[in-house]
Sequence to fold (440 residues):
Amino acid sequence: MAVRVMKNLIVVGTQWGDEGKGKIVDLLAEKFDVVARYQGGHNAGHTVRLGERKFILQLIPCGILRPDKLAVIGNGVVLDPAALTREIDALEAAGIQVTGRLFLSSRAHVILPYHRMMEKASENTPGKTRIGTTSRGIGPTYEDKMGRRGIRLADLLEPEAFRCQVELCAAEKNVLARALDLPESVDPAEIIEQYSAYAERLRPLVADTAALLAREMNRGRSVLFEGAQGTMLDVDHGTYPFVTSSSATAGGVCIGLGVPPTRIGRVVGVSKAYTTRVGGGPFPTEAAGPEGDKIRERGSEFGAVTGRPRRCGWFDLPVLRYSRMINGLDSVVITKLDVLDHLAEIPVCVGYRYRGSGLIEMPPLASVLEMLEPVYKTLPGWQSPTYGMTEHGQLPQRARDYLKFLADSAEVEVSVVSTGPERGQTMWVPGSKLFQEWSE
Fold:
């Protein structure tokens, strides 16, 4: 089958992240020329398995693993130069060419040591609601960006301007550190020396990536857009304040890459066959006790970057409907179907009740989400192995019924089903629009 270029397409998480977007982006990248990331930092990881090799990509788009693709990190991403250079070194050691294929936005903001210091202090402040961050400086970097005091890659590459900015910011952070009685302080000279070395290492990769993407699209080349986290962690549309600090929804592509909305063709959501969440915050369908523990064990639900155990629960249809609305989903990919193979019955949340009344819209308050009652419909399980299956017709009838119920209830087609971590452990759903485009 000849490879055909698809329209520009967004892959977005529909839950609280960790849905398996990395594998799906890697799979779809075959039909695209460029893979571009639009938000987040190195606090989230995409895991891609290629045979015996496993790659955990924290910043670099999954397209880097395909030798004929370009990879772009947009202005909406916050970059830790140390984490990025480690990732580049690991890829190059594995035989992956990076130089000439990876491009960093000159407008992307840089994570500095004092951002990590401030985040740790914030998370440990007595009486403050703990968000459960990774304390890698992501949030404070976005705060400085919005406060118009951030330092961008373009600044990092200008030694004198960088020195002045660091000295000014360090003085401000040290005042805050003393006020908060922190044991740490900021040494601007140390930062300037360390980050000047990073500047020279990254200089060949820095570009005006908005202009680069525009040129590529004007040439008729296609772009696959990827983000980190998921819809329910979006800073505006997620379970605020238990969210990330950037726009993880499809709309973040335009802001985080400088791409006009008129250049985007389709939006594909990714969802697990159940639900997980990391860190604090409301999780209406969380399965506490042995049921949740079994899903965590079978699904290896531990953070790719942090190793933290994920909270596990049942599929949440109100969340998928909300994600469909916010992102304008054309279709959805269901991952980790095989994790449910052992169950005789599978609860699915079909709605919410709060103080005796049904809810039609997603509540904006985390306090309401914590108190609402999920309404479940129990579906029969298939109790038959699906791991590694590659044809939709191979699935047990009850597994197909489960997928159809999710699609019909959320009013969005299921286009792809993943039954394992490898590229090949994936099936297309016949008749779906995405399958038709892929097959042409």
